Amino acid sequence: MTGARTHRGLLIAGLAGTTGAGAISILLAWLALLGGAKAASGCAATDIVTPSSVSLAVLFQGAAQQSRLGDRGPAILAGIADVETHFGRDMSTSSAGAVGFMQFMPNTWATYGVDADGDGRKDPASPSDAIFSAARYLRASGAPADWPRAIFAYNHSSAYVQKVLDKAAHYAQELTATAPVAACRASAAELSVIPGISRVAGDGALAAIPGFPGEQVDERILPDVLALIATYHVAVTAGYATRGHAPDGEHRLGLAVDLVPGPHGTWDDVDRLAAWAEPEQDHPRPPFRWVGYNGDANHGRGNHLHLSWEHSPTEASQRSVRWVDVFDVAGG
User: Fold this and answer.
1) Largest alpha-carbon pair distance within the chain?
2) What is the DSSP letter of 120?
């Protein structure tokens, strides 16, 4: 993708050859992504998703949030992904017949499998589908109230349960005990440490928003959207759309989202995001082109927050634009 921001280690392709200490480094990068920015004081750089390689950070966190798995949910899902396939390194069918990224038995997949990436298929080999389905199954099996029982339902072995719990605890300990990453979480609470704006060229290909089946945006703004979702606990009700919105607006370009409170969010979170995105009415913070909320017809608390991104001039007949301004969330 011409002119795109740097893509680093959390991509699925990078994970495929990574184990041990490398996996810890990958998981440490989660928190930076979930904070939504790179802090100025030595925080690990965030990583970005592409249409073909979705960041595991967003998937583990989003799946845990959607299935209400609590604070331990992302680390448990990571532990299972590591034990089962080493984060996708070995997705061969097991001797018992389990398949895919999170090693589901076919009958279990038939019951709990979901199409998380919105491509019209429930695919156990898809990291998005598999991780969200695993979260759903764990919730149905007793998590987060009884993690050992839920993990045992996933694989009927006490040794397996302990191995997953040990890995999850190890990842969680490394994540929470790392001062630079903890500092990233705190300082990125309002995304205020983002160092700048990048102008990204490209063809405007659409990318699915993980965790929101059927919703898509221009791939160039997807990292921004994911950072906002994770930081402000919002949900996307509309992204790319050809009808139902202003014909000359950004929804038709995939450069706008409509947001409401997510599973663990409230309208207070949406208020904070709106105030941050538009400190003064009709004067949005770059890279936003327009912010629709309180004071704008058919927008506001109780309705939705609209965010659109600045872009190159376009004609009404065009579906994509030459460049888009985005947050420089990858840094350097």
Assistant:
1) 61
2) S
User: Which pTM value belongs to this model?
Assistant: 0.49
Query: Hey, what are 252's tokens?
Result: 């038709």
Rounded Cα distance, 73 and 92, in Å = 25
- Containing H/E element for 258? strand 256-261
- The C-alpha atoms of residue 121 and residue 71 are separated, in whole angstroms, by 29
Rounded to whole angstroms, the Cα distance separating 166 from 163 reads 5
Domains of the chain and CATH, by start: 12-187 (1.10.530.10), 197-327 (3.30.1380)
Amino acid letter, 30: W
Residue 50's φ and ψ, nearest 5 degrees, are -125, 165
Q: Residue 16: phi, psi to the nearest 5?
A: -60, -30
Query: Which pair of structure tokens corresponds to residue 198?
Result: 């990048």
CA dist list (Å): 300 to 215, 217, 262, 270:
21, 22, 16, 9
Give bridge partners of residue 32 from the DSSP assignment: none
Instruction: Tell me the CA distances in angstroms from 63 to 71, 92, 191, one per residue in order.
Output: 12, 23, 22
CA distance 169 to 323: 43
CA distance 77 to 280: 41
Planar angle of CA 226, 70, 236, nearest 5 degrees? 30
**Distance (Å, whole) CA 142 – CA 138:** 6
Instruction: Read off the pLDDT of residues 281-332 as tens digits, 9 standing for 90 and up.
Output: 888 988 999 999 999 999 999 999 999 999 988 876 777 898 998 886 443 3
3-state secondary structure (DSSP) of residue 327: strand
What residues contact 227, with CB distance under 8 A and at least 6 apart? 33, 35, 36, 37, 46, 191, 327, 329
CA distance 208 to 176: 30
Please write the tens of the pLDDT for every residue from 190-206: 333 334 678 888 888 99
- In angstroms, rounded to a whole number, what is the distance separating the alpha carbons of residues 60 and 300? 30
The Cα–Cα gap between 233 and 226 comes to 10
